[in-house]
Prior knowledge:
Number of helices: 5
CATH topology: Heat Shock Protein 90
Helix content: 40-55%
Distance between the termini: 46 Å
Amino acid sequence: MIAPWPVADCGPYAVGSGALAEYEDRMHAVRSGLAAVTGAIQILTSPSDESGPAFAERIGAMLVEELERLKRIATPTDAGAFGHQVDEMDLDEIVRSVVQTRRLAHQEVAWQESGFRIRGRRDVVVEVLNILLVNAWRHAPGAAARIETTREGSMIRVSVTDTGPGVPEELRNVIFERGAHREDSEGQGLGLSIARGLARGLGGTLELVTDPLAGARFDLTLPQGHLDGAA
């Protein structure tokens, strides 16, 4: 059964108001980032098969990057939690960073470099990919995840799939609705709604795709950059 997540009375920030949605989106991103930071710190302070200066430097760089992203998200601006600045970016660099963070949380994620460039906002793309991978990790624990990228006209499609049981049929039509979630879910039902809104804000889309060869598959499309290294 699907249940809406209850929202507390926030005084002037009425349910459904832009201010409340902005606050919820911001806090969702902050919680996700803090989980990544916590995982990295645990890796650095615990015995591990992988160690040495190069390993510590890599984890340290990821920590600095994630803390800077959290600072930007948590600082209120007129442009909202993620700003309005649109840049041309290396998609591989973004995916590599996100995958490294998820692997620190012991999530298996496979991907291959594509050479594609996209137009968008880095913090937004990172947040959408984080949401999709964390969603797979929560609802298909232990299942392998994969990120695949392809070009479709003037857009770049980023497919995030897992080998879990897939999205239940009763959820497929409402999965992007804000606050919709299964009664046994620990989440608030915000992540996928936030991710779709962020994708649309970049001029892209986010869709659930029925794929008989995958458990759950979400396709994110983003405007391609002017130049890339792909054939």
